[in-house]
Design a protein that fits this description.
Elements: H1 6-16, H2 30-39, H3 45-53, H4 77-88, H5 96-108, E1 113-117, H6 124-129, E2 134-135, E3 145-149, H7 151-157, H8 164-171, H9 174-195, H10 198-214, E4 218-223, H11 233-240, E5 255-259, E6 264-270, H12 279-291, E7 296-303, H13 306-315, E8 325-328, E9 335-337
């Protein structure tokens, strides 16, 4: 039987009576959510409904967490999107892509929403500490990367009618926000080290070993080792300094490098589960290069081991694009050109 999509699962749960929309999850109404968001200049209907979803204390939607954790403990953008579209609005739209930029980001910037991570089966160290959502997004683009409301923000939402505005005023104090964000970042770094993300290590090897040895004269101008979110405004501004205009439709690589003297670009893709420089990516980034009037663009697909490279190329029917390069971290003294 084919695996059900998130939207299909939600509709099935609703139909069976297993899932119902809560009127005031954790005692918080949508009206209160709207009032609080308006006070911090973050109110839109979509952000309001996303916050309302993250208050839901019914069973979690991750299969491994369903019996012990609640939705509010952690939900990925696909879950939040399905909660908003199907459970709250009764439609069947896919809202998760919009969610990353337009619901999550504005609230992460002020510390109201924080990233979290549910351990996968191979995360032995974290699982030994307990099955729960841990701070941060230690593995780039992992389906177990999720979001939750910060405890302090929930405290504002749940405050008594006569107290919430004063609590909110204290919460938005600039020094408090700086401390809040700093603590989130510190906690996330601890978890990242515990998961020892293979993908992150291959990206790091690209900037510390591959580029210095094989791309003389190139400098790293962009690294994407986050949680899959699209490029930020600050990153766009930085890239414009190098004559690069980025849109949300551009497929940004794990590492983008630039040669100041030749005006060449180079793309480095770190692959542990997907993301090779195939023909589609080759063409898309060639267009990006031409649109930005750069002299040329080169490509490298990097794998952690020969075993991983063989597994991926068998699975993808040898999808590496012609005239690109392959590099293996464990055999890092040489690279290989893909020729037709």
């Amino acid at each position: 039987m084919a695996k059900l999509s998130v939207n299909e699962k939600v509709k099935e749960w609703i139909s069976s009576g297993e899932l119902q929309l809560q009127v005031a999850p954790q005692g918080v109404t949508k009206e209160r959510v709207a009032q609080v968001l308006a006070k911090i200049s973050r109110h839109t209907v979509d952000i309001q409904d996303a916050v309302f979803a993250l208050l839901d204390d019914s069973p979690n939607w991750y299969p491994s967490a369903r019996d012990t954790l609640s939705f509010s403990d952690g939900a990925c953008t696909a879950f939040i999107g399905a909660h908003v579209a199907i459970l709250q609005r009764g439609s069947d739209a896919k809202l998760d892509r919009e969610g990353r930029d337009y619901w999550i980001k504005p609230l992460r910037e002020v510390g109201a929403i924080e990233p979290c991570y549910l351990p996968a089966k191979k995360d032995k160290v974290l699982l030994e500490k307990g099955l729960k959502f841990y701070d941060g997004h230690p593995k780039a683009k992992s389906p177990n990367n999720a979001y939750r409301l910060s405890a302090s923000f929930i405290g504002v939402l749940k405050a008594e009618e006569s107290e919430w505005e004063e609590k909110l005023s204290n919460w938005i104090n600039e020094d408090d926000m700086r401390i809040r964000l700093e603590k989130q970042a510190q906690a996330a770094e601890i978890i990242r080290k515990l998961t020892d993300s293979e993908h992150s290590l291959v990206i790091e090897a690209g900037s510390t070993h591959y580029a210095p040895n094989f791309l003389k004269g190139f400098e790293v101008i962009y690294i994407d080792d986050g949680d899959g979110e699209r490029i930020t405004d600050s990153e766009k501004s930085r890239l414009m300094e190098f004559g690069l205009e980025i849109t949300n439709h551009d497929a940004m690589p794990d590492i983008l490098l630039w040669n100041r003297s030749t005006d060449e670009l180079w793309v480095y893709e770190a692959v542990t589960s997907d993301g090779e420089v195939d023909q589609h990516k080759f063409v898309q980034l060639q267009k990006f290069c031409e649109r930005n009037n750069k002299s040329s663009i080169g490509f490298t697909t990097a794998y952690p081991t020969w075993k991983k490279a063989a597994e991926r190329q068998k699975l993808t029917n040898n999808n590496l694009a012609i005239n690109t390069y392959m590099w293996i971290v464990e055999d890092g003294s040489k690279q290989f050109k893909i020729e037709g």
